[in-house]
């Protein structure tokens, strides 16, 4: 990866899909929609900019995790013309974390003089503060579900997490975090 832009794109993708287990998830849906009528869902694709951020491996991890979650709810993925359509959008932000460390050195000593003044005394203390700044990437994955016939948004879920750089971690955390997000979907998984 000699091209720095490719490396940045890879890190973005890694971040998005890495989604650590501390992912924050939110969802909202149309309360008047009967979600039991949706038996099929088709994948409408990634928003243009998101498509450039993710690599094919992470895209597959996300879509596979979503497919498994929808299948567990009795909703099957079809190539096109599903009862509902899913679109995905990714946003990556760089944030900073500043930490301050203070070391205090108190002055305490012993004086031994002739006559008066023997004993301990308090001297001047000193304190030093060190600041440490860490930059990190935070990614937000937004999943929109539309009624295909009415072209109306019926459900939206979003997940925000720190970007993970190691593919082994992303491989484990993506399905876990998609599962965490889908717990907020209006239909629970079918009991086996």
UniProtKB/TrEMBL annotation:
- Name of the protein described by the UniProt record: Uncharacterized protein DUF4136
The organism is: Xanthomarina spongicola
- Signal sequence extent: 1-23
Q: Which InterPro entries match?
A: DUF4136
Which keywords does UniProt give here? Signal
Looking at the record's lineage, which domain of life comes first?
Bacteria
- DUF4136 domain: from which residue to which, for each copy? 25-186
